[in-house]
Design a protein that fits this description.
mainly alpha; 4 helices; 0% strand
Length: 106
């Protein structure tokens, strides 16, 4: 993989916060649904919610190691975990978009 441009790196650092917030909004909605599911006993809801949170806190939509060396791998991980879609990369350089698309689809 080629090194990322300074402009793409700066844009990523700006975008990641919004992407993570958006992802965590969906997680919060899923968590609320679990916790308010009256068809389950309170203990089941609690443990189901705890299991979900334990699993999700390790995803790139919640925590991510910010490193230029991991930049493209992080983008692929964000795609894999459905934190972002290819369309979310539309503001990045055409070269980066093409490389990520090739890696993602290849």
């Amino acid at each position: 993989m080629k090194e990322c441009s300074e402009a793409d790196w700066k844009l990523f650092r700006m975008k990641i916060v919004g992407w993570q917030e958006r992802y965590m909004e969906t997680l919060n909605a899923r968590l609320a649904k679990i916790l308010t599911d009256e068809t389950l006993p309170a203990s089941d809801r609690f443990w189901k919610a705890e299991k979900m949170m334990s699993r999700e806190k390790k995803t790139s939509g919640v925590t991510i190691e910010m490193s230029r060396n991991l930049f493209k791998l992080n983008l692929l991980r964000l795609l894999k975990e459905k934190v972002i879609m290819l369309e979310d990369l539309s503001e990045f350089s055409p070269e980066l978009q093409e490389e990520i698309r090739r890696l993602w689809e290849g």
